[in-house]
Amino acid sequence: MLKIENLHATVGDTEILMGLDLEVNAGEIHAIMGPNGAGKSTLAYALGGRPGYEVTDGSVTFDGDDLLDMDPHERAAAGLFLGFQYPVEIPGVSNVQFLREALNSQRKARGEEPLSGGEFLKVAKEKAALLKLDMDMLKRNVNVGFSGGEKKRNEMVQMGILDPKFAVLDETDSGLDIDALKTVGEGINAIMRKPDKGVLLITHYQRLLDYVQPDFVHILSKGRIVKTGGADLAKKLEAEGYDEVMAV
């Protein structure tokens, strides 16, 4: 589904990714862990096409197509979702307005009919219920006045409504308390744990992986994946730290 080969990427004049290789098949959840500065967020932003993150070498194919040849909105329409570590606020734009426009824009790009207001609200209510987010919050401006946990749950509702093929989630567990962590984890499972979808889950901590159990865990260090294992690798990292585990 997603195949990354020899990926090099820079931010400004600094090379962050230095020959990263990774393949995620349909139906798989992969977790990326690594110390600060390893390149985890750079990988997420390079895949999403965020300005300022320049790919200088290598290739990325998504469902057989050249992902790097697509503009960010084309990547989204093709089924790629990027979850941000710090979801942004959009004053003056309601969640409902934002999400309906986003969904119908993607549907139009795929040659599908737009959803009516009633059809969209039905989908929105269903996905908000999965994340235990009150529908009144979807009527508010995007993320304005939301707590950290509410922003993350709101973003997972966005993911549910857009129903992507592949999700790149950058530190979705950041700022979540115990209850919100469980809710978000269960939401990811309900939306994305399907045989025709894939997930790349970037995290510092093993705790989210108790709820979203990965098929593979990769350690990213100095711009490359240096170690791969199963879910037990994350527990080992939590207990022993990066230096100890990478030294083996």
UniProtKB/TrEMBL annotation:
ABC transporter domain mapped to chain residues:
2-247
Q: Which PROSITE patterns match?
A: ABC_TRANSPORTER_2
Q: Which UniProt keywords apply?
A: ATP-binding, Nucleotide-binding
Q: Name one Pfam family in it.
A: ABC_tran
Q: Which domain of life is it from?
A: Bacteria
The Swiss-Prot or TrEMBL record describes its family as follows: Belongs to the ABC transporter superfamily. Ycf16 family.
The opening ranks of the lineage are: Bacteria, Pseudomonadati, Pseudomonadota, Alphaproteobacteria, Sphingomonadales
Q: Which SMART domains match?
A: AAA
Record carries keyword Metal-binding: no
- Kindly list the GO molecular function terms attached to this UniProt entry: ATP binding; ATP hydrolysis activity
The UniProt entry, under InterPro entries, shows:
AAA+_ATPase, ABC_transporter-like_ATP-bd, FeS-cluster_ATPase_SufC, P-loop_NTPase
Protein's name in the database: Fe-S cluster assembly ATPase SufC
